[in-house]
Design goal:
The complex is a heterodimer.
Chain A (H helix, E strand, L loop, with lengths): L8 H23 L2 H17 L10 H20 L6 H7 L9 H17 L4 H13 L3 H8 L3 H34 L5
Helix pairs in contact in A: 1-2, 1-3, 2-3, 3-7, 6-8, 7-8
Chain B lengths: L5 H4 L7 H13 L1 H19 L9 H41 L2 H38 L6 H23 L2 H7 L1
The chains are: A mainly alpha, B mainly alpha.
The structure holds zinc ion.
Chain lengths: 189, 178
């Protein structure tokens, strides 16, 4: 299929079918909820469908789609001005489900939630760069092309994001240790 | 303990072998930087262990429904715009018919006719100018020095200003109104 002035939506379903998983995943990692990710992925394919004539076939189609998805999600995050959920607030939010999940699934879900709470502490562009690096193995050059940034800007964003994530985890560990120490201290009457 | 530059080196991928040695020595001695390094590894572990997640089955079908709905909405919007333009024009025409005298009516018709002719005339000139500009661009040597570009763009800006001013001062509009 080559891009032209227009493309039939039924024909475009092949593009959707082949690429919806990675596009959805990017939206999910960017927005943190499956529902929002579904909407964002639908919008992404709609924008891609409308602008298919602008697609440069020398570039991989998935990279182009991920670029649209990333920009859409960055805009969404800015629009909603999502409140940064602290890990403290988050751990209180995890309540047992009405239907108990197998242990490994619960663990996975918790890790996922912790991950999204962590990613929420990043700026939208930094978050997009991190997702592209760790989930899609994009190089600095690929990220720079996808997010319209210079390579040094990508390097600095990834550096800043990694430092931020580590600092939050370290802080969380410190708080956790302090809490345990407090609980173990003999209580004065 | 001074953590500089080690607390930044933890997040650098391109360290010299000597720097790696120094960093490792510091990590052995400094619990704060060691904790930061452990946290960085934990962040990486969390991200690498998280798989590519998929939407619920039937995404493509849901997208088709979404696309048809978007297309319908776009069409409705177009129709609404055309309808409001038509209604506005009809309202203006009715108001003119009701309020204007015969002489005023003729003047208005002449004014509209002359405005339309002028607009088409200027639009035609704009198209010709743009086309010749495109031709100039296509025959220009591939690499033109920046100073030539600045000169060209500056000149173009100046003539655009003169052109806009001349349209603004165009006398025929006043003639029609007189
Ligand atoms: Zn240190």
């Amino acid at each position: 299929m080559t891009p032209d002035q227009g493309i039939d939506s039924t024909l475009f379903t092949t593009v959707v079918e082949e690429n919806h998983r990675p596009v959805f995943n990017l939206c999910y990692r960017m927005l943190g909820s499956a529902e929002d990710a579904e909407d964002a992925a639908q919008e992404t394919f709609w924008k891609a469908y409308r602008n298919y004539h602008r697609y440069d076939p020398t570039r991989p189609l998935l990279t182009w789609l991920l670029a649209i998805a990333a920009h859409h999600c960055i805009d969404e995050i800015r629009k909603r001005r999502m409140k940064t959920i602290s890990l403290d607030a988050f751990t209180e939010e995890i309540l047992p489900d009405s239907q108990p999940l197998p242990e490994h699934q619960t663990e996975l879900r918790m890790e996922n939630e912790i991950l999204h709470a962590l990613l929420d502490t990043l700026q939208p562009e930094d978050r997009a760069a991190v997702v592209m690096r760790y989930w899609y193995g994009f190089s600095d050059e690929e990220i720079s092309q996808t997010l319209n940034l210079t390579v040094p800007a990508v390097k600095s964003r990834l550096f800043r994001a990694r430092k931020q994530l580590a600092t939050v985890i370290k802080q969380q560990e410190t708080n956790h240790s302090a809490e345990i120490r407090r609980q173990n201290e003999p209580q004065s009457i | 303990m001074n953590h500089n530059p080690f607390e930044n080196w933890i997040f650098e991928d391109e360290l010299e072998p000597g720097e790696v040695k120094q960093l490792n020595a510091h990590l052995q001695a400094c619990p704060a930087c060691k904790a930061l390094k452990t946290a960085d590894l934990e962040a990486k572990r969390l991200m690498r262990s998280a798989s590519i997640s998929s939407p619920e089955a039937g995404f493509t079908n849901r997208w088709l429904v979404f696309a048809h709905r978007q297309e319908e909405q776009a069409q409705k919007k177009q129709v609404a715009i055309l309808f409001s333009i038509f209604i506005t024009l009809a309202a203006i025409a009715t108001t003119i018919l009701i309020t204007a005298s015969r002489q005023q009516g003729i003047e208005i018709v002449f004014f509209l006719q002359s405005s339309l002719t002028n607009f088409l005339h200027w639009f035609q000139r704009l198209v010709i100018t743009l086309n010749s500009f495109r031709f100039v661009l296509s025959v220009l040597p591939f690499r033109v020095p920046a100073i030539v570009w600045i000169f060209l763009v500056g000149n173009l800006g100046f003539w655009a200003l003169v052109w806009t001013f001349s349209i603004w001062k165009f006398p025929s509009i006043r003639k029609v109104l007189a």
